[in-house]
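WARN no homologs supplied; continuing
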Amino acid sequence: MRRAILLACFFCSIQGWAQMETEVYLFDLDFSNGKPALSNPKNISNNPGYDNQPSFWDDDHVLFASTRDEQTDVIQFNVSEGSTSSWLTYTTTGSEYSPLRVPGKRAISAIRLDVDGLQRLYEYDLKNSTSEPLSEIKIGYHVWFDKEVLVATVLVQNRMDLVVIDLEEDTHTTVFQNVGRSLHRIPGSDLVSFISKKNSVWEIRSLDPATGNTQKIANTYGQEEDISWLDGHTIITGSGKRLLTLHTNAEDADWETVMAFGLEEINNISRIAISPNGKRLAFVAEESPAKIIQKQVEAFNSRNLDAFVSCYTENVKVQRFPNEKMYQGNDKMRENYERFFENVKQSSVEVVNRIVLGNMIIDEERTMVDGREGHQVAIYKVESGRIASMTFVFPDGPLTDAETIVQEQLYAYNNRDIDAFAETYSEGIELYSFPNSLNSKGKSKLIQQYGAFFDSTPDLHCEIQNRIVIGNKVIDHESVTVNGRIIEAIAIYEVENGEIAKVTFIQ
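OK structure emitted
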């Protein structure tokens, strides 16, 4: 069992808009001991489909793009009243995205994607409900520097370039190539921040729109490109279920997690916006991966091929555990399941157990195909609101009392008894990261690693949150306490001849 010893090592060691299921969340924002604290959460979109790109009209109103009637329009949420107050656009010839308040006017600007394929920035007068294009160039994202000057990303071939647009002078000047979508006025300055994607390590940079000069501020957190500013020196970003901050005026500053969300509904946080008074924060989160999996289960059971296939990415990988390729691609999936539905009169899947860990979902399924009952496990990986891979585990291993030996090693692990622990493993024990990356082989190596780990971890304890047993395999959702921290992982144990011969870990 690799479990927490290798997990601990991990701690040390369009350009268009994808129409995935997303929601906009709003929080009250306060500071405790210099750190941001969020409270009073609200799902202010609460709408099937795409809800994204929030910005604040003022301290009490949030703008965002939302789907209705098969198109995307701009909606305004009234925070004080606690309800969506009004739709601001309804353009039957296109959809609006990335709404912002136009300085000094009762108007908003938004990117319109017209049905004829044109993508332009429009201004919408809220007094008389009229609209007009602000520029003819193909703008991806924008921020207002003042009432006449915009900083925008412009689509050029397969990248976005940073452009300063002067509406009064009718000029546009490219100042940087290959940038991201996150553009913000830096509080207390005459600068705009943007994301540089020129190098493998992405950078947060500042731009002086008057001169075109840019300077590096910091590296992004991994390749998370959505940031916002809590104040003139503090950047906030999202990653998975976490919010992180970076203090740019601190020496040797690094990203620090300030909040982690346990809610299943909040995943892959992006598009963060801060109210003008700094007392509210909005962000976008993808729907629960489990909800996406359930959609495809229901689509399968209703034999709705279009709905079923739409749950998967274009390049979806379908394999037999651990990584034996069955087929790849959305078209191949459609072909296979179309043939299946034609040849099978009755079919259904019942999920009898489900393990959820981040964007990984493991379903224990009871199948029924023309009266024949089956048992299988499906391991799903969800990326950007779609299923990117599906790995089947079948009960085709040697018959064995797998659960008993796995439970014995758990007792030994929690007692930190290295001899009893090692006794449950075969001499050639192999430890893998999912799907098939070998990390360790042999009992002597296991004893060496875990012996030192047991000695250095007095509070070590593992609890099983959920368990699936299929053939000679035991799949455990584990919660492990390690030196005051709790680490979650999934372990897939394979038992042969009464010993654990292989373990595959999913983190």
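The CA atoms of residues 195 and 204 lie 5 Å apart.
OK
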